[in-house]
Amino acid sequence: MAVPTAALSAQASAPVDPEDAAVSPAPASTPAPPPSAPRRARSSSPDMRIVGQPGFVLHSYPHKETSLIIDLFSRDHGRVALVAKGAKRPYSKLRGVLQTFQPLSVNWTGKAEVRTLVAAEWVGGLLPLEKSALLCGFYLNELLVKLLARDDPHPELFDHYVSTLNQLAHGESPPIVLRQFERALLKAGGVAADLTHCSVDRSGVEAKRVYVVDPEQGVRPALPSDTWPRIHGKTLLDMEREDYSDSVTQTQSKFLMRFLLAHHLGGAQLNTRQILIDLMQL
Q1: At what angle do helices 174-188 and 131-147 cross, to 10 degrees?
Q2: Do 73 and 161 contact (CB within 8 A), yes or no?
Q3: What letter does residue 105 receive in the DSSP assignment?
Q4: Cβ pair 271, 142 in contact under 8 A
Q5: Which residues of the chain have pLDDT under 50?
Q6: Residues 79-89: pLDDT tens digits?
Q7: Which residue among 77, 96, 103, 163 is least crowded, i.e. fewest CB within 10 A of its CB?
Q8: How do beta strands 78-84 and 114-122 pair?
Q9: pTM of the model
Q10: Which is nearest to 101 in space by CA: 132, 138, 69, 156?
Q11: Residues of the chain with pLDDT > 70: what percent?
Q12: Sheet holding 231-232, edge to edge
């Protein structure tokens, strides 16, 4: 069941001619003009205020005694950090709202690296994640936190995230929906290779040939000395079409995406990925 996105949803002074600027000396009897009042410094522009922005809490951690720092994935502003003042107090309106996987409408203000949360309301529209789907959701959030730069809007990826949560909540195959989201995330970051053409000579990928995917250069024919995952051309073409119905495609795409993500993470560990590997062999 698709979720409607809407539910979440100085003036410069004119140059002065030097001749015009010359002033004849005033007669001795003429009093000197009073000094002009000093110009008042221009006030800085007001803090940016965002109202009614669709978003999801990816992660939060304590800040001082009663507040939280929220890592929010918003549709039109990307990943932003917000301080939720007083959110840990027992009677705070934010206490039960700032939960992961809940679609929110969020207001915030500020221009600093960490803005100030003004309000957040739950808007509904998604079933809660349970059991293995919940763990998959935490995996998605960890990917976004570690691979998505702050203040870099990706509205299409946001919509894909909503769709992925919805698919997981409705019991669709985790391996398939996770592979699709991983690929969408790499595309959003500009590091997803074209899987339909060979990077060496731009020839089309052939279904029956065996290839490797260089994380920086793209697809090329496999060599006997290669230690990277060896992938059938059919798997690459299936992945580009987002068709994971073939069992071989599911298996090979799993190892390929694990390899590519590890490269782009630069050695950073994914805690939820290891748990998923241990429990579900995803």
Answers
A1: 10
A2: yes
A3: E
A4: yes
A5: 1-45
A6: 999 999 999 99
A7: 96
A8: parallel
A9: 0.80
A10: 138
A11: 81
A12: 218-221, 210-214, 231-232
